[in-house]
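Convert to structure. Protein one:
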Amino acid sequence: MQNLSENNMDRFAGMSIVDLARRHGTPFFAYDRAVIEKRVGELKQFDVIRYAQKASSNLGLLALMRKLGVVVDAVSAGEVERALRAGFRPDSNPPGIVFTADLFDADAAEAVRAHRLEVNVGSPDMITQVGKLYPGAPVILRINPGFGHGHSRKTNTGGEWSKHGIWHSQLEECLKLGREAGVKIHGLHMHIGSGTDFEHLAQVCGSMVRAAKLLGKDLEVISAGGGLPIPYRKEQPRIDTAAYFDLWDKARKEIEANAGRAVRLEVEPGRYLVAESCVLVTQIRSIKKVDGNVFYMVDAGFDTLVRPAMYGSYHGISVVAADGRALAEEQDVVVAGPLCESGDVFTQEEGGVVVTRRLPVARIGDYLVLHDAGAYGAAMSSNYNTRRLAPEILVADGRDTVIRARQTYDHILQFERIPDDLK
Protein backbone atom coordinates (compact mmCIF):
# COMPACT_ATOMS: atom_id res chain seq x y z
CA MET A 1 0.00 0.00 0.00
CA GLN A 2 1.43 3.39 -0.92
CA ASN A 3 0.89 6.62 0.97
CA LEU A 4 -2.59 7.80 -0.01
CA SER A 5 -4.22 11.13 0.77
CA GLU A 6 -7.75 12.35 0.14
CA ASN A 7 -9.26 10.04 -2.44
CA ASN A 8 -11.70 7.19 -2.78
CA MET A 9 -10.41 3.95 -1.33
CA ASP A 10 -12.52 0.88 -0.84
CA ARG A 11 -9.85 -1.81 -0.37
CA PHE A 12 -6.95 -2.30 2.00
CA ALA A 13 -4.23 -4.91 1.44
CA GLY A 14 -6.57 -6.61 -1.03
CA MET A 15 -9.54 -6.76 1.34
CA SER A 16 -12.78 -4.78 1.28
CA ILE A 17 -12.86 -1.94 3.84
CA VAL A 18 -16.62 -2.35 4.16
CA ASP A 19 -16.31 -6.09 4.81
CA LEU A 20 -13.61 -5.50 7.41
CA ALA A 21 -15.74 -2.86 9.12
CA ARG A 22 -18.81 -5.08 9.19
CA ARG A 23 -16.79 -7.98 10.57
CA HIS A 24 -14.83 -6.11 13.24
CA GLY A 25 -16.94 -3.02 13.98
CA THR A 26 -15.53 0.49 14.11
CA PRO A 27 -13.21 2.06 14.89
CA PHE A 28 -10.34 -0.36 14.23
CA PHE A 29 -6.70 -0.31 13.16
CA ALA A 30 -5.64 -2.51 10.23
CA TYR A 31 -1.99 -3.27 9.37
CA ASP A 32 -0.70 -4.47 6.01
CA ARG A 33 2.02 -7.01 6.84
CA ALA A 34 3.60 -6.67 3.39
CA VAL A 35 4.33 -2.97 3.98
CA ILE A 36 6.20 -3.71 7.22
CA GLU A 37 8.23 -6.39 5.46
CA LYS A 38 9.10 -3.93 2.67
CA ARG A 39 10.20 -1.20 5.09
CA VAL A 40 12.43 -3.62 7.01
CA GLY A 41 13.99 -4.72 3.73
CA GLU A 42 14.87 -1.11 2.88
CA LEU A 43 17.15 -0.88 5.94
CA LYS A 44 18.93 -4.23 5.65
CA GLN A 45 22.21 -2.52 4.80
CA PHE A 46 22.62 -1.68 8.47
CA ASP A 47 24.29 -4.33 10.63
CA VAL A 48 21.37 -4.27 13.06
CA ILE A 49 17.81 -2.95 12.79
CA ARG A 50 16.56 -2.26 16.31
CA TYR A 51 12.84 -1.49 16.31
CA ALA A 52 11.75 1.34 18.60
CA GLN A 53 8.67 -0.52 19.74
CA LYS A 54 7.11 2.51 21.42
CA ALA A 55 5.79 3.34 17.93
CA SER A 56 3.51 0.30 17.96
CA SER A 57 4.16 -2.48 20.44
CA ASN A 58 1.47 -5.08 19.77
CA LEU A 59 2.77 -8.59 20.44
CA GLY A 60 1.78 -9.68 16.95
CA LEU A 61 3.83 -6.91 15.37
CA LEU A 62 6.79 -7.65 17.65
CA ALA A 63 6.67 -11.31 16.67
CA LEU A 64 6.69 -10.26 13.01
CA MET A 65 9.73 -8.06 13.63
CA ARG A 66 11.54 -10.98 15.26
CA LYS A 67 10.74 -13.22 12.31
CA LEU A 68 12.20 -10.58 10.00
CA GLY A 69 15.48 -10.54 11.93
CA VAL A 70 14.81 -7.26 13.72
CA VAL A 71 15.71 -6.76 17.39
CA VAL A 72 14.03 -4.27 19.74
CA ASP A 73 14.50 -1.28 21.95
CA ALA A 74 12.46 -1.05 25.17
CA VAL A 75 11.82 2.16 27.10
CA SER A 76 9.92 0.71 30.06
CA ALA A 77 9.62 -2.47 32.09
CA GLY A 78 6.34 -3.10 30.29
CA GLU A 79 8.05 -2.97 26.91
CA VAL A 80 10.70 -5.36 28.21
CA GLU A 81 7.91 -7.76 29.18
CA ARG A 82 6.32 -7.41 25.75
CA ALA A 83 9.62 -8.18 24.04
CA LEU A 84 10.20 -11.25 26.22
CA ARG A 85 6.70 -12.57 25.47
CA ALA A 86 7.29 -12.02 21.76
CA GLY A 87 10.37 -14.26 21.94
CA PHE A 88 13.27 -11.78 22.05
CA ARG A 89 16.32 -12.83 24.08
CA PRO A 90 18.43 -10.30 26.01
CA ASP A 91 21.48 -12.59 25.87
CA SER A 92 21.59 -12.98 22.08
CA ASN A 93 24.28 -11.32 19.97
CA PRO A 94 23.41 -8.59 19.20
CA PRO A 95 21.13 -8.32 22.24
CA GLY A 96 17.50 -8.92 21.37
CA ILE A 97 16.46 -6.27 23.88
CA VAL A 98 18.22 -3.04 24.88
CA PHE A 99 16.69 -0.84 27.58
CA THR A 100 16.77 2.88 26.73
CA ALA A 101 15.75 5.65 29.12
CA ASP A 102 16.81 8.81 30.93
CA LEU A 103 16.08 7.32 34.35
CA PHE A 104 15.34 4.04 36.10
CA ASP A 105 11.98 3.76 37.78
CA ALA A 106 11.58 0.88 40.25
CA ASP A 107 10.05 -1.51 37.70
CA ALA A 108 12.68 -0.76 35.06
CA ALA A 109 15.56 -1.22 37.52
CA GLU A 110 14.21 -4.62 38.49
CA ALA A 111 13.77 -5.66 34.85
CA VAL A 112 17.36 -4.64 34.04
CA ARG A 113 18.66 -6.55 37.06
CA ALA A 114 16.53 -9.65 36.54
CA HIS A 115 17.26 -10.02 32.82
CA ARG A 116 20.76 -8.48 32.83
CA LEU A 117 19.81 -6.09 30.08
CA GLU A 118 22.15 -3.91 28.10
CA VAL A 119 21.29 -0.30 28.92
CA ASN A 120 21.36 2.78 26.72
CA VAL A 121 21.69 5.46 29.40
CA GLY A 122 20.45 9.00 28.89
CA SER A 123 21.61 10.51 32.21
CA PRO A 124 24.98 10.30 34.00
CA ASP A 125 23.28 9.14 37.23
CA MET A 126 22.21 5.95 35.49
CA ILE A 127 25.81 4.81 35.01
CA THR A 128 26.40 4.46 38.73
CA GLN A 129 22.93 3.00 39.24
CA VAL A 130 23.30 0.29 36.61
CA GLY A 131 26.63 -0.70 38.14
CA LYS A 132 24.77 -1.43 41.36
CA LEU A 133 22.10 -3.44 39.53
CA TYR A 134 24.65 -5.91 38.20
CA PRO A 135 28.45 -5.70 37.82
CA GLY A 136 29.98 -5.54 34.38
CA ALA A 137 26.76 -4.37 32.74
CA PRO A 138 27.19 -3.41 29.05
CA VAL A 139 26.33 0.27 28.64
CA ILE A 140 25.71 2.55 25.67
CA LEU A 141 25.76 6.30 26.18
CA ARG A 142 22.99 8.30 24.56
CA ILE A 143 24.60 11.63 23.73
CA ASN A 144 22.77 14.92 23.25
CA PRO A 145 25.02 16.61 20.65
CA GLY A 146 23.78 20.08 21.57
CA PHE A 147 21.18 20.46 18.84
CA GLY A 148 17.97 18.81 17.74
CA HIS A 149 15.43 18.71 14.94
CA GLY A 150 12.09 17.08 14.11
CA HIS A 151 8.62 17.52 12.65
CA SER A 152 7.35 19.07 15.90
CA ARG A 153 8.87 20.77 18.93
CA LYS A 154 7.41 17.90 20.93
CA THR A 155 9.45 15.35 18.98
CA ASN A 156 12.73 17.27 19.10
CA THR A 157 15.09 15.20 21.25
CA GLY A 158 18.29 17.25 21.17
CA GLY A 159 19.52 20.65 22.30
CA GLU A 160 19.56 22.47 25.60
CA TRP A 161 15.79 22.23 26.20
CA SER A 162 15.54 18.49 25.60
CA LYS A 163 15.32 16.11 28.55
CA HIS A 164 16.89 13.34 26.46
CA GLY A 165 20.50 12.26 26.48
CA ILE A 166 23.80 13.11 28.15
CA TRP A 167 25.09 16.58 27.30
CA HIS A 168 27.99 16.20 24.89
CA SER A 169 30.52 18.00 27.11
CA GLN A 170 29.94 15.45 29.91
CA LEU A 171 31.22 12.45 27.96
CA GLU A 172 34.64 12.25 29.63
CA GLU A 173 32.99 12.55 33.06
CA CYS A 174 30.68 9.65 32.14
CA LEU A 175 33.60 7.46 31.10
CA LYS A 176 35.14 8.09 34.53
CA LEU A 177 31.82 7.20 36.21
CA GLY A 178 31.75 3.99 34.17
CA ARG A 179 35.18 2.93 35.37
CA GLU A 180 34.22 3.65 38.98
CA ALA A 181 30.93 1.75 38.63
CA GLY A 182 32.55 -1.29 37.02
CA VAL A 183 30.37 -1.22 33.92
CA LYS A 184 31.43 -1.73 30.32
CA ILE A 185 30.79 1.41 28.28
CA HIS A 186 31.14 0.12 24.73
CA GLY A 187 28.72 2.11 22.59
CA LEU A 188 27.36 5.51 21.60
CA HIS A 189 23.85 6.48 20.51
CA MET A 190 22.56 9.74 19.05
CA HIS A 191 18.99 10.62 18.17
CA ILE A 192 18.01 14.27 17.70
CA GLY A 193 14.33 13.98 16.78
CA SER A 194 11.58 12.32 14.79
CA GLY A 195 11.19 13.44 11.21
CA THR A 196 14.60 15.09 10.83
CA ASP A 197 16.41 15.79 7.54
CA PHE A 198 19.75 14.99 5.91
CA GLU A 199 21.35 18.33 6.77
CA HIS A 200 20.82 17.73 10.48
CA LEU A 201 21.68 14.02 10.18
CA ALA A 202 25.03 14.96 8.67
CA GLN A 203 25.69 17.13 11.72
CA VAL A 204 24.85 14.17 13.97
CA CYS A 205 27.34 11.97 12.10
CA GLY A 206 30.04 14.56 12.66
CA SER A 207 29.19 14.72 16.36
CA MET A 208 29.31 10.93 16.58
CA VAL A 209 32.79 10.81 15.01
CA ARG A 210 34.09 13.38 17.50
CA ALA A 211 32.54 11.62 20.50
CA ALA A 212 33.82 8.21 19.38
CA LYS A 213 37.43 9.37 19.63
CA LEU A 214 37.09 9.55 23.41
CA LEU A 215 36.12 5.87 23.67
CA GLY A 216 38.92 4.69 21.43
CA LYS A 217 39.32 0.91 21.24
CA ASP A 218 36.55 0.35 23.80
CA LEU A 219 33.96 1.36 21.21
CA GLU A 220 32.13 -1.65 19.73
CA VAL A 221 28.78 -0.26 18.57
CA ILE A 222 27.27 3.02 17.38
CA SER A 223 23.56 3.65 16.94
CA ALA A 224 22.20 6.09 14.39
CA GLY A 225 19.03 6.34 16.43
CA GLY A 226 15.74 6.65 14.60
CA GLY A 227 13.67 9.54 13.35
CA LEU A 228 13.46 8.44 9.72
CA PRO A 229 10.51 10.40 8.29
CA ILE A 230 7.67 9.10 6.16
CA PRO A 231 5.64 11.16 3.66
CA TYR A 232 2.34 11.85 5.43
CA ARG A 233 1.37 14.15 2.54
CA LYS A 234 1.44 12.98 -1.07
CA GLU A 235 3.73 15.85 -2.15
CA GLN A 236 6.38 14.95 0.40
CA PRO A 237 9.36 12.95 -0.93
CA ARG A 238 10.43 9.58 0.44
CA ILE A 239 13.68 9.45 2.35
CA ASP A 240 16.55 7.91 0.37
CA THR A 241 17.45 5.03 2.69
CA ALA A 242 20.55 4.15 0.65
CA ALA A 243 21.86 7.70 1.03
CA TYR A 244 20.95 7.61 4.72
CA PHE A 245 22.99 4.45 5.19
CA ASP A 246 25.91 5.83 3.17
CA LEU A 247 26.01 8.89 5.44
CA TRP A 248 26.29 6.74 8.55
CA ASP A 249 28.56 4.15 6.97
CA LYS A 250 31.04 6.89 6.08
CA ALA A 251 31.02 8.01 9.72
CA ARG A 252 31.37 4.42 10.89
CA LYS A 253 34.44 3.85 8.69
CA GLU A 254 36.09 6.99 10.04
CA ILE A 255 35.35 5.80 13.58
CA GLU A 256 36.77 2.35 12.80
CA ALA A 257 39.96 3.92 11.44
CA ASN A 258 40.39 5.91 14.65
CA ALA A 259 39.49 2.97 16.92
CA GLY A 260 41.52 0.38 15.03
CA ARG A 261 38.69 -2.15 15.19
CA ALA A 262 35.36 -3.08 13.59
CA VAL A 263 32.34 -1.17 14.90
CA ARG A 264 28.75 -2.41 14.62
CA LEU A 265 26.31 0.08 13.07
CA GLU A 266 22.74 -0.05 14.36
CA VAL A 267 19.67 1.90 13.28
CA GLU A 268 16.62 2.37 15.51
CA PRO A 269 13.52 3.07 13.42
CA GLY A 270 10.04 3.12 14.88
CA ARG A 271 7.73 5.22 12.73
CA TYR A 272 9.48 4.24 9.50
CA LEU A 273 8.70 0.53 9.88
CA VAL A 274 5.02 0.75 10.82
CA ALA A 275 3.42 4.13 10.06
CA GLU A 276 2.47 3.51 6.44
CA SER A 277 1.38 -0.06 7.10
CA CYS A 278 -1.73 0.97 9.00
CA VAL A 279 -5.08 2.66 8.54
CA LEU A 280 -7.65 3.67 11.12
CA VAL A 281 -11.17 2.93 9.92
CA THR A 282 -13.97 4.88 11.55
CA GLN A 283 -17.66 5.38 10.74
CA ILE A 284 -19.55 8.62 10.19
CA ARG A 285 -22.31 8.71 12.82
CA SER A 286 -23.54 12.26 12.30
CA ILE A 287 -23.24 15.05 9.74
CA LYS A 288 -24.09 18.56 10.83
CA LYS A 289 -23.68 22.18 9.83
CA VAL A 290 -22.34 24.77 12.24
CA ASP A 291 -22.80 28.14 10.61
CA GLY A 292 -20.86 27.70 7.34
CA ASN A 293 -18.94 24.59 8.38
CA VAL A 294 -19.88 20.97 7.67
CA PHE A 295 -18.81 18.45 10.30
CA TYR A 296 -18.35 14.74 9.70
CA MET A 297 -18.73 13.28 13.19
CA VAL A 298 -17.06 9.88 13.51
CA ASP A 299 -16.83 7.17 16.16
CA ALA A 300 -13.04 7.48 16.64
CA GLY A 301 -11.61 10.26 18.77
CA PHE A 302 -8.26 11.38 20.08
CA ASP A 303 -8.55 8.51 22.52
CA THR A 304 -8.07 6.36 19.40
CA LEU A 305 -5.56 8.49 17.44
CA VAL A 306 -4.10 11.39 19.41
CA ARG A 307 -1.50 12.70 16.95
CA PRO A 308 -3.67 15.43 15.34
CA ALA A 309 -4.73 16.76 18.74
CA MET A 310 -1.28 16.49 20.33
CA TYR A 311 0.96 17.56 17.46
CA GLY A 312 -1.35 19.03 14.82
CA SER A 313 -0.32 16.06 12.68
CA TYR A 314 -1.71 15.50 9.22
CA HIS A 315 -3.23 12.16 8.19
CA GLY A 316 -4.64 11.60 4.72
CA ILE A 317 -8.35 10.77 4.79
CA SER A 318 -10.42 8.71 2.36
CA VAL A 319 -14.18 8.22 2.25
CA VAL A 320 -15.63 4.76 1.62
CA ALA A 321 -19.32 4.51 0.74
CA ALA A 322 -21.01 1.87 2.87
CA ASP A 323 -23.38 0.98 0.02
CA GLY A 324 -20.73 0.91 -2.71
CA ARG A 325 -22.05 3.98 -4.55
CA ALA A 326 -19.74 6.20 -6.56
CA LEU A 327 -18.34 9.25 -4.77
CA ALA A 328 -17.78 12.21 -7.05
CA GLU A 329 -18.92 15.52 -5.57
CA GLU A 330 -16.64 17.05 -2.91
CA GLN A 331 -16.99 19.63 -0.16
CA ASP A 332 -14.89 21.23 2.57
CA VAL A 333 -15.48 19.48 5.90
CA VAL A 334 -14.21 19.29 9.46
CA VAL A 335 -13.67 15.75 10.78
CA ALA A 336 -14.33 15.42 14.50
CA GLY A 337 -14.80 12.67 17.06
CA PRO A 338 -17.20 11.81 19.90
CA LEU A 339 -15.21 12.96 22.93
CA CYS A 340 -16.42 15.69 25.26
CA GLU A 341 -13.46 17.85 24.22
CA SER A 342 -13.27 20.77 21.79
CA GLY A 343 -9.87 19.50 20.71
CA ASP A 344 -11.29 16.20 19.48
CA VAL A 345 -10.79 17.11 15.83
CA PHE A 346 -8.78 15.19 13.24
CA THR A 347 -8.47 18.13 10.85
CA GLN A 348 -6.41 20.56 12.89
CA GLU A 349 -2.98 22.10 12.75
CA GLU A 350 -0.38 22.60 15.47
CA GLY A 351 -1.71 24.92 18.14
CA GLY A 352 -5.24 23.56 17.85
CA VAL A 353 -6.24 25.54 14.76
CA VAL A 354 -9.21 23.73 13.21
CA VAL A 355 -9.09 23.52 9.41
CA THR A 356 -11.25 21.94 6.73
CA ARG A 357 -10.39 19.07 4.42
CA ARG A 358 -11.70 18.62 0.86
CA LEU A 359 -13.52 15.27 0.93
CA PRO A 360 -16.27 13.54 -1.03
CA VAL A 361 -19.85 14.25 0.01
CA ALA A 362 -20.71 11.45 2.43
CA ARG A 363 -23.71 10.04 4.24
CA ILE A 364 -24.23 8.81 7.78
CA GLY A 365 -23.00 5.22 7.88
CA ASP A 366 -20.16 5.74 5.40
CA TYR A 367 -16.59 5.12 6.52
CA LEU A 368 -13.55 7.34 6.80
CA VAL A 369 -10.07 5.85 6.43
CA LEU A 370 -7.25 7.72 8.16
CA HIS A 371 -3.95 6.81 6.55
CA ASP A 372 -0.47 6.25 7.96
CA ALA A 373 -1.79 5.56 11.46
CA GLY A 374 0.62 2.78 12.43
CA ALA A 375 3.08 4.87 14.43
CA TYR A 376 1.82 6.26 17.73
CA GLY A 377 -1.74 5.34 16.83
CA ALA A 378 -2.79 2.28 18.80
CA ALA A 379 0.29 2.67 21.02
CA MET A 380 -0.88 6.06 22.35
CA SER A 381 -4.59 5.29 22.53
CA SER A 382 -6.34 5.65 25.88
CA ASN A 383 -9.53 5.03 27.82
CA TYR A 384 -10.41 8.72 28.06
CA ASN A 385 -14.18 9.19 28.49
CA THR A 386 -14.17 5.48 29.48
CA ARG A 387 -14.04 4.44 25.86
CA ARG A 388 -12.81 1.00 24.88
CA LEU A 389 -9.51 0.51 23.07
CA ALA A 390 -10.06 -0.26 19.39
CA PRO A 391 -9.06 -3.64 17.96
CA GLU A 392 -5.95 -4.13 15.85
CA ILE A 393 -6.10 -6.32 12.74
CA LEU A 394 -3.13 -7.73 10.81
CA VAL A 395 -3.88 -8.34 7.13
CA ALA A 396 -1.73 -10.70 5.07
CA ASP A 397 -2.36 -12.87 2.01
CA GLY A 398 -6.04 -11.98 1.92
CA ARG A 399 -6.60 -12.96 5.56
CA ASP A 400 -7.36 -10.71 8.52
CA THR A 401 -6.20 -11.74 11.99
CA VAL A 402 -7.21 -9.98 15.18
CA ILE A 403 -4.01 -9.16 17.10
CA ARG A 404 -5.80 -7.08 19.73
CA ALA A 405 -9.47 -7.65 20.50
CA ARG A 406 -11.77 -4.75 21.24
CA GLN A 407 -11.51 -3.99 24.94
CA THR A 408 -14.43 -4.71 27.26
CA TYR A 409 -15.72 -2.48 30.05
CA ASP A 410 -14.77 -5.19 32.54
CA HIS A 411 -11.17 -4.84 31.36
CA ILE A 412 -11.29 -1.08 31.89
CA LEU A 413 -12.84 -1.23 35.36
CA GLN A 414 -11.27 -4.39 36.79
CA PHE A 415 -8.78 -2.63 39.07
CA GLU A 416 -11.10 0.05 40.45
CA ARG A 417 -12.74 -0.33 43.86
CA ILE A 418 -15.59 1.36 45.73
CA PRO A 419 -14.78 1.87 49.44
CA ASP A 420 -17.04 -0.16 51.75
CA ASP A 421 -18.58 2.93 53.36
CA LEU A 422 -19.70 4.19 49.94
CA LYS A 423 -21.46 1.03 48.83
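Protein two, convert as well:
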Amino acid sequence: MNKKNLLTYQGLQNLETELQDLKVVRRKEVAQKIKEAREQGDLSENAEYDAAKDEQRDIETRIEEIEKILKNAEVVVEEEVDLETISVGCQVRILDCEYDEELEYKIVGSTEANSLKGKISNESPVGQALLGAKVGDTVTVETQAGALTYKVLEIQRSN
Protein backbone atom coordinates (compact mmCIF):
# COMPACT_ATOMS: atom_id res chain seq x y z
CA MET A 1 0.00 0.00 0.00
CA ASN A 2 1.43 3.37 -1.02
CA LYS A 3 1.45 6.04 1.64
CA LYS A 4 -0.42 9.26 1.01
CA ASN A 5 1.71 12.26 0.10
CA LEU A 6 0.36 15.25 1.99
CA LEU A 7 0.69 18.42 -0.07
CA THR A 8 -0.44 21.98 0.37
CA TYR A 9 -2.25 23.48 -2.62
CA GLN A 10 0.88 25.52 -3.43
CA GLY A 11 3.01 22.39 -3.27
CA LEU A 12 0.62 20.61 -5.64
CA GLN A 13 0.76 23.51 -8.10
CA ASN A 14 4.57 23.60 -7.94
CA LEU A 15 4.84 19.88 -8.74
CA GLU A 16 2.31 20.12 -11.59
CA THR A 17 4.22 23.08 -13.07
CA GLU A 18 7.56 21.26 -12.78
CA LEU A 19 6.06 18.13 -14.38
CA GLN A 20 4.66 20.16 -17.28
CA ASP A 21 8.03 21.89 -17.80
CA LEU A 22 9.91 18.58 -17.75
CA LYS A 23 7.54 16.92 -20.22
CA VAL A 24 7.08 19.81 -22.64
CA VAL A 25 10.27 21.90 -22.51
CA ARG A 26 13.12 19.87 -21.03
CA ARG A 27 12.40 16.66 -22.99
CA LYS A 28 12.61 18.61 -26.27
CA GLU A 29 15.80 20.38 -25.21
CA VAL A 30 17.57 17.14 -24.33
CA ALA A 31 16.31 15.40 -27.48
CA GLN A 32 17.85 18.24 -29.50
CA LYS A 33 21.15 17.88 -27.60
CA ILE A 34 21.19 14.13 -28.33
CA LYS A 35 20.44 14.77 -32.01
CA GLU A 36 23.25 17.32 -32.27
CA ALA A 37 25.70 15.01 -30.49
CA ARG A 38 24.80 12.12 -32.82
CA GLU A 39 25.54 14.31 -35.82
CA GLN A 40 29.11 14.73 -34.58
CA GLY A 41 29.85 11.11 -35.48
CA ASP A 42 31.47 8.43 -33.30
CA LEU A 43 29.29 8.03 -30.17
CA SER A 44 31.81 5.87 -28.26
CA GLU A 45 33.96 8.89 -27.38
CA ASN A 46 31.35 11.63 -27.49
CA ALA A 47 31.12 13.42 -24.12
CA GLU A 48 28.22 15.62 -25.26
CA TYR A 49 26.20 12.53 -26.20
CA ASP A 50 26.92 10.84 -22.86
CA ALA A 51 26.02 14.01 -20.93
CA ALA A 52 22.78 14.44 -22.89
CA LYS A 53 21.81 10.79 -22.29
CA ASP A 54 22.52 11.23 -18.55
CA GLU A 55 20.39 14.37 -18.52
CA GLN A 56 17.61 12.52 -20.34
CA ARG A 57 17.73 9.73 -17.75
CA ASP A 58 17.57 12.27 -14.89
CA ILE A 59 14.58 14.02 -16.47
CA GLU A 60 12.70 10.75 -16.95
CA THR A 61 13.48 9.70 -13.37
CA ARG A 62 12.16 13.01 -12.01
CA ILE A 63 9.01 12.77 -14.18
CA GLU A 64 8.36 9.29 -12.80
CA GLU A 65 8.99 10.53 -9.24
CA ILE A 66 6.57 13.46 -9.58
CA GLU A 67 3.89 11.30 -11.19
CA LYS A 68 4.15 8.84 -8.29
CA ILE A 69 3.85 11.68 -5.75
CA LEU A 70 0.83 13.17 -7.54
CA LYS A 71 -0.86 9.77 -7.90
CA ASN A 72 -0.89 9.39 -4.10
CA ALA A 73 -1.34 13.06 -3.26
CA GLU A 74 -3.73 14.26 -0.62
CA VAL A 75 -4.14 18.03 -0.67
CA VAL A 76 -4.48 19.84 2.64
CA VAL A 77 -6.96 22.69 2.29
CA GLU A 78 -5.16 25.35 4.29
CA GLU A 79 -8.28 27.52 4.66
CA GLU A 80 -9.92 24.64 6.57
CA VAL A 81 -6.99 24.00 8.91
CA ASP A 82 -8.01 23.97 12.58
CA LEU A 83 -6.05 26.73 14.30
CA GLU A 84 -6.60 25.24 17.78
CA THR A 85 -3.98 22.53 17.27
CA ILE A 86 -0.94 22.21 15.03
CA SER A 87 -1.51 20.20 11.85
CA VAL A 88 -0.17 20.01 8.30
CA GLY A 89 -0.71 23.35 6.56
CA CYS A 90 -0.21 25.51 9.68
CA GLN A 91 2.35 28.22 10.17
CA VAL A 92 3.70 27.99 13.73
CA ARG A 93 5.81 30.27 15.86
CA ILE A 94 7.69 28.43 18.59
CA LEU A 95 10.23 29.34 21.25
CA ASP A 96 13.40 27.28 21.50
CA CYS A 97 13.57 27.11 25.31
CA GLU A 98 17.31 26.35 25.44
CA TYR A 99 18.45 29.28 23.26
CA ASP A 100 15.49 31.61 24.00
CA GLU A 101 15.06 32.02 20.25
CA GLU A 102 11.79 32.32 18.33
CA LEU A 103 11.46 30.11 15.26
CA GLU A 104 8.78 30.06 12.60
CA TYR A 105 7.90 27.00 10.55
CA LYS A 106 5.28 25.87 8.14
CA ILE A 107 4.28 22.25 8.69
CA VAL A 108 4.09 20.46 5.32
CA GLY A 109 4.12 16.93 3.94
CA SER A 110 7.51 15.27 3.47
CA THR A 111 7.61 15.92 -0.29
CA GLU A 112 7.45 19.70 0.25
CA ALA A 113 9.86 19.95 3.19
CA ASN A 114 12.65 22.50 2.78
CA SER A 115 14.29 23.63 5.99
CA LEU A 116 16.03 26.53 4.23
CA LYS A 117 12.59 27.97 3.44
CA GLY A 118 11.18 27.24 6.90
CA LYS A 119 9.08 24.28 5.75
CA ILE A 120 9.40 21.23 7.97
CA SER A 121 7.92 17.83 7.37
CA ASN A 122 5.14 16.41 9.49
CA GLU A 123 7.34 13.28 9.59
CA SER A 124 10.46 15.03 10.92
CA PRO A 125 11.19 14.74 14.67
CA VAL A 126 10.22 18.39 15.30
CA GLY A 127 7.18 18.17 13.02
CA GLN A 128 5.95 14.99 14.70
CA ALA A 129 6.40 16.49 18.17
CA LEU A 130 4.49 19.65 17.21
CA LEU A 131 1.50 17.90 15.59
CA GLY A 132 -1.52 18.17 17.86
CA ALA A 133 0.06 20.74 20.18
CA LYS A 134 -1.84 23.89 21.20
CA VAL A 135 -0.69 27.45 21.91
CA GLY A 136 1.05 27.44 25.29
CA ASP A 137 2.02 23.75 25.09
CA THR A 138 5.64 22.73 25.57
CA VAL A 139 6.93 19.84 23.47
CA THR A 140 10.14 17.88 23.78
CA VAL A 141 11.93 16.49 20.75
CA GLU A 142 14.43 13.67 21.16
CA THR A 143 17.37 14.12 18.78
CA GLN A 144 20.82 12.62 18.48
CA ALA A 145 22.16 15.77 20.11
CA GLY A 146 19.82 15.34 23.08
CA ALA A 147 16.36 16.58 24.01
CA LEU A 148 15.15 19.91 22.62
CA THR A 149 12.26 21.77 24.20
CA TYR A 150 9.94 24.15 22.36
CA LYS A 151 7.00 26.22 23.53
CA VAL A 152 4.19 26.89 21.03
CA LEU A 153 3.61 30.65 20.81
CA GLU A 154 1.24 30.97 17.83
CA ILE A 155 -0.61 28.89 15.26
CA GLN A 156 -1.84 30.56 12.10
CA ARG A 157 -2.80 29.86 8.52
CA SER A 158 0.13 29.99 6.16
CA ASN A 159 0.24 32.77 3.61
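The longest helix spans residues 9-38. The two ends are 33 Å apart (CA to CA).
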